[in-house]
Each structure stands twice: as structure tokens, then as C-alpha cells.
Amino acid sequence: MAGSRGPYAKGVAKRAEILRTALEVIARHGYRKTSTRELAAAVGLSEAGLLHYFGSKEKLFEAVLRARDEADRSRFADAADPIELLAAAVRHNGSVPGLVELYSTFSAEAGDPDHNSHTYFVDRYAAIRVSLADAIRARQSAGTFNPSADPESVATILIALSDGLQVQSQYALPADPADLFDNLLDLLRDS
């Protein structure tokens, strides 16, 4: 049994290396300017070898988005709650325009129920909505958030704002997306 773990462990390590490299390359060059051939070369694989670890190009990019989410959760682990985490991620996105491009493009394409990553986005949005609504209720209980705000509605609006700001940031948005996000949070605080 110990012998069977070696190749498996190497595969897990290679997959992690591919995702780390893809995050860096896409953040720097953008989704449209990054080919799977370029990613494969960056990790010493053929294009077929790269896709072997994920099954398809779409699953590779879904895995990159999952890795981006995990990196953000780690990067902002000191956030007091999911609302602060989302605000920190919106602020951070200004420094990774290539990943914003990937997310915006891929989330639009995955809107098609037949897209390989449709379920990923459905599940992702549902989980974020629940965690944000819970954080809103906690802030309402603490007296720091407007008590008349419906937690589920505000959670959905915060996600829509975050995603919309990511899209608009690709079109010379005249204001900092994080400042706009923070402005809405200021309006929702209980004064």
C-alpha cells in the first residue's frame, strides 16, 4: 500500500504546482492571453499532460478559480467575517486583473446549464449567500448593521455588487471598486 501512495502523492503535488503556476501566469497575462500550451510549458509538461490532471480545459480553469478562492480565504484569514473577507477580496482584485478577467468570462460562460462548471458556480454562489446572510444577521444582533435589511437579499446584492465591479473594472471604472463596495457597507451600517 505504501508504494501506491508515492505516485498519488506526486500527482497531487504536480496538480498543486500547476494551479500555483496558473494563478501567477493568468494574474500576470490574463485569461485570454494565457494558453494551456503556455501553462504546460511553465510546469514542464505537454499540453496533453497538463490536461490529464484536470480532464479538460474547462475543468482546469474551474480548478484555477477554486484555487483563487482558497488563496483568498487564506490571504484574508484574519477577516472578522465573510463580509470583511468579500470586501478584502474586492480590494485585492485590483492587483490581479488577469484573474478578474478569468472569473468574469468563465462565470458568464458557465451560466449555460450545460457548461461543465455550471454546478461549481451554483454551489459557490449558494455557499457565499449563506455565509454572508449569517454574517449580516450577526451584525444585526450586535447592533452594527441596519436591522431592517433582509439578510438574504443583502447577501445577494453584495455578491452582485462584487461581481459587477469585477466586470466594470475591466472597462476603466472611474472609481476604486473597493471604495464603492465599502460605500455600500457604510450605508448598511446601523447608525
Topology:
Layout: H1 2-29, H2 36-42, H3 47-52, H4 57-75, H5 82-93, H6 97-109, H7 118-141, H8 151-168, H9 177-188
Model description:
- The radius of gyration is 19 Å and the shape is elongated.
- The chain has helices at residues 2-29, 36-42, 47-52, 57-75, 82-93, 97-109, 118-141, 151-168, 177-188.
- α5 runs parallel beside α8 (151-168).
- It has 191 residues and is mostly helical.
Q: Care to give the gist of this entry?
A:
The chain is mostly helical. The protein has helices at 2-29, 36-42, 47-52, 57-75, 82-93, 97-109, 118-141, 151-168, 177-188. Helix 1 crosses helix 6 and helix 5 runs antiparallel to helix 9 (177-188).
Number of helices: 9
Q: Provide the succession of SSEs.
A: HHHHHHHHH
Helix coverage percent: over 70%
- Taken as a percent bin, the fraction of beta residues is under 5%
CA-atom Rg in angstroms:
19 Å
Unreliable segments of 5+ consecutive residues: none
Q: Major sheet, described briefly?
A: none
Beta-strand segment tally: 0
Mean pLDDT: 90
Structural class: mainly alpha
Separation, N- and C-terminal Cα atoms: 62 Å
* Molecular shape: elongated
What attributes characterize this protein structure?
191 residues, mainly alpha, 9 helices, elongated
